[in-house]
Amino acid sequence: EVQLVESGGGLVQPGGSLRLSCAASGFTFSRYWMSWVRQAPGKGLEWVANIKEDGSAQYYVDSMQGRFTVSRDNDKNSLYLQMNSLRAEDTAVYYCGRNGGYTLDHWGQGTPVTVSS
Amino acid sequence: DVVMTQSPLSLPVTLGQPASVSCRSSQSLVHSDGNTYLSWFHQRPGQSPRRLLYKVSDRDSGVPDRFSGSASGTDFTLKISRVEAEDVGVYYCMQGTRWPYTFGPGTKLEI
């Protein structure tokens, strides 16, 4: 059974940093692109970033380019999202997802991030 | 970026009756490989989204056959043949043909 478990969310001040993690199990992690998607409170879904199977390529939505960094450790079956220079508008639940064919076929339960002073 | 729009944004339905959600893309979603990467997701309150359909009409494992998808150009439709109580929640369309991938605003289905 595919499982994705996010962690690392919490309360952070504007301008601060946070590192999210996603532990994957139940599939061969190194064979899949992985993604981060976020959902602001009461709002819709917004793609954040994609990372290639071997970590050699990353793609970001423009508003997060330069502030967010997606990475992975295939030996640890883990996906990460380093978020810097956080703003109030980054407040959201962050989901990691397995990217299967230009879509997400499995999602984690999400980890909430609140940016507030 | 490809803009995805959905209608209606709120959909009151009656149990046992059909329901339909429309999604429109601002550009063609036909990929260079010939596929159309349009997916539908269902999100129940307090839960993560779950994929229902991919490549317009392919159903995910475990998804009831009362869910179906179709396309006509840049217009896409999710149909539920007979709504059941477990179908409440928000339905999102999403395109994966062009980066950045984008979602529609969501359609809230209410009994």
Please tell me about this protein's structure.
The complex is a heterodimer of chains A (117) and B (111). By secondary structure, chain A is mostly beta strands. In chain A, 0% of the residues lie in helices and 53% in strands. Chain A is built from no helices and 11 strands. Chain A has strands at 3-7, 10-12, 18-25, 33-39, 45-51, 58-60, 68-73, 78-83, 92-99, 104-107, 111-115. Chain A is globular. Chain B is mostly beta strands. Chain B has no helices and 11 strands. Chain B has strands spanning 4-7, 10-12, 19-25, 38-43, 50-54, 58-59, 67-72, 75-80, 89-95, 102-103, 107-110. In chain B, the strands form 2 sheets. In chain B, strands 2, 4, 5, 6, 9, 10 and 11 form a 7-stranded mixed sheet that branches. Chain B has a 4-stranded antiparallel sheet with strand order 1-3-8-7, with no helix packed on it. In chain B, strand 5 and strand 6 (58-59) form a beta hairpin. Chain B is globular and about 40 Å long. Chain B starts with a strand and ends with a strand. The model of chain B has no long low-confidence stretch (mean pLDDT 96). Chains A and B meet through strand 5 and strand 10 of A and strand 5 and strand 10 of B.
